[in-house]
């Protein structure tokens, strides 16, 4: 088995031979490499041919590179650190926490999930959450976004919302916290001191997204927030009309 070398941690990734199947070893960026080696020791006899890719995760993503790493961890189903994501040709099928050490029993339980009949469905659900996270990360990290940037992400957002794995909560969060703000930003880019057919159409599109987020679950926290935003927008438009006509 190829063992981790402490000097390679600072490189961000430890990538073994491309010809060998690779599992992914997730750990916090500041987690001691020697401790990882000790916890992985039981694998020396159990899986001598396996290779591993070290993926250091930040406490909070501050760059797009870090955000992509976190998104991959979400896709793999990481819920604790450090952990080992077991991978085959179809992708990740289990995450095994390292704890004090990786026990043979925990490893075998993880391996059994490779043949689980619900594996593909769970993978699709995790993939949706990973793409959702990455979209929100990009909205937080990329400034300013131009019209083309927004168009690409609006299309991605709508696709995620149409996923058969998107719950009401997921659709509402995407609609209210991603789609609506992006459409309003596009509206502001189109508005140049006066309305045009293009800017008015974009505003109506944003209002429709807001209404859909509200109506998807009116009694949820996001539904009530969407309702409040809709009323605020209605009042602002009414006030603008009054000022426009001098009444």
Number of H- or I-type helical stretches: 10
Strand order, largest beta sheet: 2-1-3-4
**Helix-strand pattern, N to C?**
HEHHEHEEHHHHHH
Q: Characterize the largest beta sheet: strand count, sense, and whether it forms a barrel.
A: 4 strands, mixed
Q: Write down the overall mean pLDDT.
A: 87
Q: Kindly, what is the distance between the CA atoms of the first and last residues, rounded to a whole number of angstroms?
A: 79 Å
Rounded Rg: 23 Å
Structural class: alpha+beta
**Could you tell me the number of beta strands?**
4
| Quaternary status | single chain
Question: What report would you give on this structure?
Answer:
The protein is α+β, with helices and mostly antiparallel strands. 58% of the residues lie in helices and 11% in strands. The protein has 10 helices and 4 strands, in the order H-E-H-H-E-H-E-E-H-H-H-H-H-H. It has a 4-stranded mixed beta sheet with strand order 2-1-3-4, with helices on both faces. A hairpin with a 2-residue loop joins strand 3 and strand 4. Helix 4 packs antiparallel against helix 6, helix 8 packs antiparallel against helix 9 and helix 8 packs parallel to helix 10. The chain starts with 5 loop residues before the first helix and ends with a helix. The relative contact order is 0.08.
């Amino acid at each position: 088995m190829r063992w981790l070398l402490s000097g390679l941690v600072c490189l961000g990734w430890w990538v073994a031979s491309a010809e060998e199947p690779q599992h992914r070893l997730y750990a916090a960026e500041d987690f001691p490499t020697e401790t990882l080696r000790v916890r992985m020791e039981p694998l020396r006899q159990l899986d001598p041919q396996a290779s591993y890719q070290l993926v250091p995760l930040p406490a909070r993503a501050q760059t797009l590179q870090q955000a992509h790493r976190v998104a991959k961890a979400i896709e793999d189903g990481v819920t604790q650190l450090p952990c080992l994501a077991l991978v085959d040709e179809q992708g990740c099928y289990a995450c095994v926490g390292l704890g004090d050490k990786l026990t043979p029993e925990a490893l075998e339980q993880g391996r059994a999930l490779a043949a689980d009949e619900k594996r593909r469905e769970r993978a699709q659900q995790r993939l949706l959450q990973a793409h959702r996270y990455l979209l929100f990360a990009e909205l937080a990290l990329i400034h300013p976004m131009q019209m083309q940037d927004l168009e690409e992400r609006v299309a991605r957002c709508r696709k995620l919302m149409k996923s058969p794995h998107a719950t009401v909560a997921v659709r509402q969060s995407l609609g209210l916290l991603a789609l609506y703000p992006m459409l309003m930003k596009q509206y502001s880019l189109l508005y140049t001191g006066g309305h045009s057919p293009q800017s008015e159409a974009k505003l109506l599109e944003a209002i429709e997204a807001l209404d859909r987020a509200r109506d998807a679950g009116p009694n949820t926290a996001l539904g009530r927030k969407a309702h409040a935003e809709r009323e605020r927008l209605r009042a602002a438009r009414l006030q603008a009309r009054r000022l426009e006509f001098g009444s």
